Amino acid sequence: MTGEFEPLTQSVRRLIDVTIRSEVGNAVAAEAKAHIDRAVELLSADLMPGSYGMRTADDGRPTVLGNVLIGARNPVAPPLVIHHEPQGSVYTEFELGAAYEGPAGHVHGGVCAMILDHVLAAPAHQPGQPAVTGTLTVRYLRPTRLGQLRAEARVDRVDGAKTYVVGHIADSDGATVEASGVFIRPRRR
Amino acid sequence: MTGEFEPLTQSVRRLIDVTIRSEVGNAVAAEAKAHIDRAVELLSADLMPGSYGMRTADDGRPTVLGNVLIGARNPVAPPLVIHHEPQGSVYTEFELGAAYEGPAGHVHGGVCAMILDHVLAAPAHQPGQPAVTGTLTVRYLRPTRLGQLRAEARVDRVDGAKTYVVGHIADSDGATVEASGVFIRPRRR
């Protein structure tokens, strides 16, 4: 019951991009707006209250399709796909276009921080025992150009309930932004 | 030549929200997708190459309408409106809905970091002399519920080329996330 929304979401991602980059005249923009408003009306005929939250898929597994970074149903999400490596580190490869711009031609520094928050949390989580972010520190080495990027993270050390994680975002020339994070695993009761 | 795209962008923001929250059946979702694809086609008839960047408005002032946080033409942007107070501090009041979700019902911690990156940079900038972010440290005090929020920032101290800024995001019960940042003003040549 969720898969049919993924092609729709991809279409909305394309729409976000061309909404920013279009140079058509007023009449064409108005015609496009009419189509968008009709789509909103159609989709609004049956809306869940509030946000997507965590929902159970047909196979019983929890899904977070509305997540702003990994959600297949959230058009804001690139979406990131996090790969877990056998040694416990994680990486993700993704492309950021016009929708994520800060300085001209570059990824907004805040977007880099947002992605690093999510990627650094990934190796800190244990199955059934999620960690909460305590502190995240982001160091900007140089501007990050829009385009194809990679982020990775690994656990640096564990000290009691605290897990220290390090990671970075890189383009083809190497790291552009580094980060370290402290994640706290709530005590089991 | 840019104002006509703002109502269109608002429509796309509504579309992002209902794309996440809709529970309509396959046939209606497909009909909505057809309208979205038609809008994409119309807007793509004339596209600027690359991203929006910084463009000059009719009155000669630079505009950053594509910015992921403040861009009036970027549907991903809430958009933030940054208010500068006479003493140099800044604040912004905004609402975050389903599109910015991380943990169920709550703002993604990375979104908080992204917003704080932008808001803390604001008081560090001087007219004609923008500062670049060196380091941003974010401390998560408690979960931030989706809904109406406020962020603020002020310069803590200036030491040579470095400007130290502090700030936070708050809901109606007080601060949920605190941040400090070091911003570097490139030397004048």
Which key phrases capture this entry?
homodimer, 189 residues, alpha+beta, Thiol Ester Dehydrase, Chain A, six-stranded antiparallel sheet, two-stranded antiparallel ribbon, 8 strands
Count of alpha/pi helices of chain A: 3
Low-confidence parts of chain A: none
Class by helix and strand content of chain A?
Answer: alpha+beta
Strand content of chain A: 25-35%
Question: Average pLDDT value of chain A?
Answer: 94
- Number of separate strands of chain A: 8
CATH superfamily heading of one domain in chain A: Hotdog Thioesterase
Strand order, largest beta sheet of chain A? 3-4-6-7-8-5
Order of helices and strands of chain A: HHEEEEHEEEE
CATH fold-type name of one domain in chain A: Thiol Ester Dehydrase, Chain A
CATH class identity of one domain in chain A: Alpha Beta
Span between N and C termini of chain A?
36 Å
Shape of chain A: flat
